[in-house]
Write the structure tokens for this entry.
Amino acid sequence: TQNYTTSTTSKEATLTINKVELIIKVNTPNSIFYGDDAPTFSYTCEGFVNGETESVLTTKPTISNSYVPGNNKGNYAITISGAKANNYIISYVNSNLVVNPRVISISWSNTSVTYNGQLQEPIPSFSNVYNNESISYSLDNSYINKGTYTITASISNQNYVLDNSTISTSFVINELNLTNNTVIEVEGTYT
């Protein structure tokens, strides 16, 4: 206007947009049993803003785990790394795969025998064994004389546990019906 003199002054300013933190977590899988295949691993991203999704990752993360079927029971680290995104600072949360002992059951044979003067015992066979592995076992007792007994098996393999419902069996030694031609050997020393 006629009563004023105007001037225009412009100033430049720098606007800094910082990257946002993004956390990528390994989803902890269900535990597995000795000899099982490894599960499919997955992850979850936390921290996307403005409705953004995993699609903004220019490089997807990689999940690593050292477990292979046949590894002993225990915990196996699951690590995640390698993701990239232009506007995010990425951090990671790893997890573990838990491998439990495999549960095996017993089928018993030779559970009813005839007295023969020797120590006798039933015979266990194991099912649900990984890769047909041989299972070493021990029985809590063997018997000679006629009678009905309870026999219990045990194993000392860290990768297996016995199904409690099949761990024991009834064992019967029946009396021997003697005939004129029956010959038996009896253990022991007699005077």
